[in-house]
Each structure stands twice: as C-alpha cells, then as structure tokens.
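Continuing from the previous page of notes. For each protein in this section, the sequence appears first, followed by its structure tokens. Read the first protein now.
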Amino acid sequence: MDDSGYSTKEDKIRNLSPLPRRRRLMSMENTSLTEVITVYEKLKKGRENRVYRQSNFIDSSPRMDSDFKEAEETIPIVPTFFHVQGESKLHVLDFNKYNKGFRSSKYLYFSEKANLLQADFIENLSPDFSQLLKEKNYWLNIFDPNEQDFYILFNSYGVHDLTINDIREGNTEEKMEAYKHYTFFSLRLENFQGGERKENVDVDFNILLFKDFIITIHDKNWPSITDILGFVNLLSAHSTVLTPDWVLFSCFIEMNQDAKYVLDSIEPEITKIRVGSKSIEMSDIMRRNFEMELRLYSISRFIKPKMRILRQLKVKCSKRVSKVVLRLLGDILEEFREQSHDLNHFNHILERSQDTFLAIVTSDQSREANEMSLVMKRISEIALIFLPIQSIGSFFGMNVTVPVNNL
C-alpha cells in the first residue's frame, strides 16, 4: 500500500504503468477556490440565476446604466487598493455551461482532457473507449446500471463482488467501505422539490473512489448531476487539477446545499404556523404541524447518515483524500451538524407549539363547559321557582274530591 492509501493492484488490473501524482498547486488560501465555493453556495440558495458575473458596476438594465452614468460625474476618482495579477476585471462563473448540451444519457464521462462526453452505450463514448477508461483524473457516471456494467466493474476495475451486489440490490444502508484499491460509498438521496419530499423518488447513489478516477452509479435520475458537473468544471478551470477527491467533495457539497435549501424553505412556514395560530382552525394547525414534523424527519434521515460517513472517512481513509479536500469535507460535516441542530430546534418548536395548541383546545372546551354549566344553573333556578307553583296548580286542578272543597 502506498502513501495515498491505495495498493498498486489497481494499476495491474487496468494494465497501466503507475505515473507520479501531480502536485496540487493550491491551498485553503487560494482565492479562486474560495470564490468558486462561495458563489456556488449563494447560487444554490437562489436556485434561479445560475450565472454569476462580477460586474464592477456594470448592469444590463437601461435604468442601472443611466444611474451609473449620472453617478460617474459626481463620484471623485478613487485609487485602486488591490490588484490581482493575471485576472481580468470582468470575472464570469458560469455554472450552467453544460445545461444546454446536457441530456440524460446512460454514460457521462468528464475530464480536463476530454471535457464532457455522453452516450447511451459505453463504446460510443469514444472510438477508443477502452483507452479512454485507462486515462487518469476522470469522472465516469453510470445511470441505471445493467449486467454489462457490473461485468466491466468486476473485470476491468476489480470491484469486489460484495460491492457489486450492494449496487445491484439497492436499498442498502448508507455506509462507507474501504477496500484495497478503492473506497465504496453507498448513499441514499431524496428528491426535494419546493422544499417538499416527493414520494417514490429516492435515489440509490453509489460512489467508487479510486486513486486516479471516480465512478458514480445511480438507479434513478438525479437532477443535481448537472450542478455537480458545472461545479467540477469551474474547480478544474479556476482552481486545481481535477483529481477524484474533488468530485467526491462536489457530490457532498451538493447534498449539503440541497438540505440547506429545504431547511431555509421550511423555517418561514414554521414561523407562519406560530404567528397565525389565532386565525386558523386548530384542526388545520394540528394537521400542518404533523406534516411539518414528517418533513423534518425526512431531512434528518437524509443528513445523519452523511454525517456518520464523513466522520468515518476522516478516521479510516484520510490518506486516500488530499488534505485540502479533507479539510473542506470537514467544513461540510460542520454544516451538517448545524443543520441537525436546526432540525432539533424546529422539532422543539413544533412540539411546544403542539402542546400549546392542545392546551388552547382544552381551555376552549373547558370554557364552553363552564358556560353550559352556567346556563343549566340558571334554568335550574327558574325551574325551582315555577315548580312549586306548577305542583300546587296541578293539585287543585284535578277532577277528584279534595277535603277542603266542603269548607
């Protein structure tokens, strides 16, 4: 086993001569990397405009153009306080570069050298697809795998039969398993649309992380593949060499942003339930409260296994991931922890609000019972007054002999 945590069996299986690993020319202080990650998180939060342009007070709207032209006449000349050598003033980060040409193909191949290749048959990726798969630093995505794909994984890549059985069967627990020349990640993804979980759309997402390449396999369509593709492209274009661990980081940050988006959409609804409790029927509130708890549970079920896998990755397979990526994955783990804390906080709010709603219902029922008792008391008092009179009148009105009639 070498310093990267992998054995050289991978090279023997693929009949490749080992090449020296390229040195990563970056660090956490790399401004391009931090900018790409920061802008990506902002764009994922908005989910609409996926092209970021550092405009330097340049806007396409006529109103903004006229406003800045008028401002230019009054703004004094200010010196430039910083200058980044080699960077243009107009910096464009386009996360939708491949959206127009992207189609839901069975096979997706991406690398810095070959760029994006798509095909419904693996042999159609390239005239010499076998040589293409012997390259280094590429990402191969397989959608809805069949037995031919399992055969290639077993014979060409040396994937263990236990891993293949887990991928074939699906619905396995989320886990990370370290083998001699690769690491297997079994993940479950949930398709959240509009902040709500869609039924019967859970995706079995499997990752095979090798030393020089990465393979992702999923049984259902996952729309976020295009977002991962755009993010990976920007990482390779602006920051670093596209090694497999960066694709792994891109997958986890995509999952983290999906969970964050859903939580951000749920928080206003929870606040709305608390504030609007007086104007909504209690039965509707209780129903919405229960539905909200189910949604929070589904998010918690999505987050917690990823946290456990990231902890295992840091402990068991730290040598198979670069220090920079490992540190960034640690940041994602911290964000997952914050999201888990927010989930617990939201659950606490819903539980307290539900107790409050039940107390309000009980109080209303008690007040109605008291009012009914007061009405019955008044009826009883009236009956107490008229009952003796009615009894005397009924007694003297009977057609029978009464002793006092002879007087």
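Done with the first. The second protein uses the same format. Note its length before scrolling.
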Amino acid sequence: MLCTRHGATPAVRRLGRFNQRPCLCHPLFMVPGRKQSLHKLETGRLRNRYPPAEGWRLRESQWCDALPRCQASMTSAGSSCTPVTSAEGNPAATAPLYVGKKAVVVGAGPAGSTAAMYLARQGFTVDVFERRPEPQDDPVDRGRAYIIIIIPRGQAALRELGVPLPTDGEHVTKGTVRHNRQGKIGISREEGNVTFSRSGLAQYMIDEARKTYPNQINFHFQASCQGVNISSKRVSFQTSHGPVTQDYDLLVGADGVGSAVRTALQQHYSDMSVVISDSGREYKTYSGVRGDIEPPEFKVNPGATLHLYTSDDPWTTFTAHNNPDGTYSGTFSLKTGGLAQLGGAEVQLTQLGGAEV
C-alpha cells in the first residue's frame, strides 16, 4: 500500500522486512515532495518487488489521501489504510509497528539521537553507544568552535518528532555577514534559522530523546565499537566497565568519518565500495575572542550571527560566531599542509575588528 502523498525509495524499503509484509505507508517508506505522476510509477515497482499474497490486493481506492501518516492493516481478506489517532483524537505520529525489536545506534551525535527517536517512535527499543563522554561532561567537545545552523528542512524533521526548537536570541539566527579583503561587507538575512554549537545540539537531542522515550532509548557513553558481526547481528563495545556485546534487529551507523559500522559493512559485502571526499582543507579553532564586528542592523536586537572572512586565496577562510557571553568563536582554515608551512608558529588572536596579534 502506498500513500498518495508520498513515494517510497529502495534505500529504506528493507527496514520493513522483519516477520511481516512491509507496510508501504509506513513513515520509514515515505519521502515528502514526490510528484503525483511518480507515485503510480513507484507503486508499480513496489508491486513487482513485493508480489501480493493470496487474497491481498493493492487498490487505488485503499490509498490514504487524508493523512501523511497511516497504518496499513493487512489480512488474508484484503488490506485497508486506517489513520492512527491519539487518545485526544488528534492524528498520532504512527502506531508502533516494531514493538519487541531491538535497534543499536553507534554514535550519539545529532544524527544518532535523531535516528534513535525515529526508531523508538516505531516501537524499537534503542541502545545508543558513543565512544566519547556525554557532551556536557566533555570539555574537549564543549570547546569545539564550530556551529550547526538548522534550516527549515531540518526544523521540519525535528518538529515531526515533537522536538521543540529554541526561540531565544542565543539560538535564533539573524544572518550571515561576509567580509572581503578590502573590508567591504555583505549581509544575508536568515531569520528563522536556528543555531547551535555542535556539542550543544548533540546534548539537546540527547536530553529530548531521554525525556520523550525514557523507557525505550538508553545511552551508553565512553563505549567504543570494537567490531560488528553482520551475519549474527551482534556488535561489541569496549566500555569503562569492560567489554559489552549487544544483539540487534536493526543497526544504524552514525559514528562519523571513521565509522566502525561502515568498515564492518565493507568487510562483509565484497561489492561495497566507499569514497570519502577530502575537502582539501585543515583548520584550527579559537574561542573567547572579543570584538566589535556587528553591522548596525544586527546590533538592534539580540540574535546569533555568523561572520565569514575571505581572501583572494579560496582555501583560506576565517569564521566567527557570537556567543552569549559577548565573545566570538570560530575556525581558521588553510589548504592542507598550510599550517605546517607556518613553521609551527603559534598565532594569537586577541581582538576582532581591531588589532590582531
């Protein structure tokens, strides 16, 4: 069954394959924004991929056009698409289809916590393992001087999970200010975007996951992935309390560029190839620098701003974003190898928009 408002993509169809015929109206199968003409084409592909069982038919009259989220109830006599409602009578996210199933998420960054919440919403019991300490307890992580700007597309995903977005001046973005070598500036207003530090967003999503699914999502920090057995669906970790082995029905790798999950998949599937693109840049971070660099139109009301300094060299950039305490943090990037060419000299930045030492 396919909801007329959404299409299904091959990359996610396998998530419905457990001990039952997959529900094609399941949220994990749905990608918003497909044109209606593509829905019928995709429906034909799904018919071929999942041939109907005896007495089971796919009829356009059974498509759900009333809600973007629905539950397909399939019996030997046929199928029907029934909207799921909450106790208050409002449309609920979905009925939990995977109660009793276990998921393991490797990596507790923003992506890992978001994946855990989506899976818990479908009924999974989720264990999230992270090799680093919890962000609020990790001084190294808190010191990372780069930010994540959540644009409307990302905000929509969080709203779907019921995650509230901050509305205070520390998080709501006012815009980006670009500074060229001649000192001229250009302003791009981006009101409505939400800004976090990377570690701040990670902790925010962890807190929301715990609050929303206290009995379904468990976080395990300082637990590094040691190996994955794809055949037996088992993953091992080294924790502060010793080695731990975890069985799973579904495994999600959200463990970054050096992903242990991806490595295990490459070893298991001989035809799997991975290409990692190198930006060609290296960078240093800074924090706690003060300066008067805001344009007049951004000084009126509080809000998060991002400053980008560029030069004639496309590899060399300098960023600055304001912090609640009035200081700035950011990154200084060069072409790979550029820092070594500086001869190891330390550069101390004491002020923005004025004297630089």
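What the second structure shows: The two ends are 65 Å apart (CA to CA). Residues 71 and 82 are 6 Å apart (CA to CA). We return to this in next week's lecture.
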